[in-house]
């Protein structure tokens, strides 16, 4: 050990250290290297540009892009049934809501208020993954600005986006989400109350959701006219 310490140490402060490479005269005056760098810069000035003049020009992300999470508005109403799964799955606990019930609507449960704290959101998409109603999805919106902590908490009004504006993402989810797990995990539209409206559109009964529910109640209460004996 002692012997090793007495050996000269190879570093630039040590007089016995030899440089691995010696510079030529041209390298020592730096000028050719400076002109090379200027030439490179000049070439780049005429190269094709990939930058955009944001915010005048905006990038349109593809459907796979995970922008800010939004609530899907289906025919003027949120799809969300306030089950709380998204809040449970959210790693930074960014989602909070209060469930309420409306017995006049077959959907029954709805979020009285629903908030996402965008200061916490990490755009992981877990909320979208777990939602059984396809009620919360990742949008293409990356243009998120707020000036205070309060403004960063998005309420239901700011979160709701009509499903027509989210068509790209909804189609993407239909085609690619959880395919590896098979049909069981797919979004089943017939299990969603909004499909009642779709069915009504197909059958053209002209009944509102409330009327349909009333009709169902009457049918359930009516005695059968004939008895199976
Ligand atoms: S994207 Fe992730 S972090 Fe953001 S609200 Fe959804 S689950 Fe939470
Ligand atoms: S998981 Fe879907 S339905 Fe359940 S509370 Fe979240 S957004 Fe609403």
3D architecture notes:
The protein is α+β, with helices and mostly antiparallel strands. Strand 3 (95-101) and strand 4 (109-117) form a beta hairpin. The chain starts with a helix and ends in an 8-residue tail after the last helix. 31% of the residues lie in helices and 14% in strands. The strands form 2 sheets. Strands 1, 2, 5 and 7 form a 4-stranded mixed β-sheet that branches. Strands 3-4-6 form a 3-stranded antiparallel β-sheet. The chain is elongated and about 105 Å long. It has a domain at 69-178: Alpha-Beta Plaits (2-Layer Sandwich). The structure holds iron/sulfur cluster (2 copies). The site of one iron/sulfur cluster (SF4) has 15 residues, from helix 5.
Write a concise keyword list for the protein shown above.
229 residues, alpha+beta, Alpha-Beta Plaits, four-stranded mixed beta sheet, three-stranded antiparallel beta sheet, 9 helices, binds iron/sulfur cluster
